[in-house]
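Risk mitigation, structural track. In case the binding assays with adenosine-5'-diphosphate fail to produce interpretable data, a predicted complex structure has been prepared as a fallback.
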Amino acid sequence: MEVKPKFLIKNGKRLDGRKVGEWREIKITTGVIPNADGSCQVDFGKTKVIAAVYGPRELHPKHMVLSDRALVRARYDMLSFSVEDRKRPGPGRREIEISKVIAEALRSVVMVEKFPRSVIDVFVTVIQADASTRIAGLNAASVALADAGIPMKGLVTGVAFGKIYDETGKGVMVADVFKPEDQWGEADIAYAKSIANDEVVLLQMDGDVTKKEFLEGKAMADKAIEYTYQEQVKALKAKYEGD
Ligand code: ADP
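Fallback model:
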């Protein structure tokens, strides 16, 4: 959408018809890359992301080896045709940053001490982007790690939230922002946690919100996270129970 709309929410309805706390359709599928040790595709509406996990395996170069634990590496990339204006191929500053925060979030749940001297590689590829790709990627990565049989303290689950303006000019908090809200909204917040450990593993904010607004948005995202988590578990069960 190239023309900026006058407002992003009117009569409590967002541009795509959702209510404030409503999330897009969520689809989670495991085993989408048979050559990987574990894999998963997560769709949050039109945002589609695939994660592939390789490892634990021997780490090269040797100077990166950690003698007491595994190194978890992540690489986030967007395909050139995943966005409206073709994206220049290869990682830029944004991709390097997102790779770093995804790796850090995953390190807090993977039982790295079980695999000293090895590496676990996670490749997150955005095949279609409609905002919240880092969060969709993180959800996919944690399921792909579980699919690879890598022991974890829990899955990582996230949903972004944000602040947009309504027809009266009032700021409104919403869950699971999509592209027009990311582009023209007041704030977007990437948020992910480990439900099992009750620990926030990723929190990044672009824009401005008050503490009250933050807590209101977070409460909505928490509900969406509960649902997403159930879908992650369902996807893993479907694979192993052969549904
Ligand atoms: P996230 O995808 O995690 O929300 P950003 O806030 O950086 O991360 O990006 C928001 C959205 O902007 C992306 O999901 C994508 O739809 C779009 N976008 C990001 N980078 C580009 C780019 N280079 N060209 C076109 N669109 C982009």
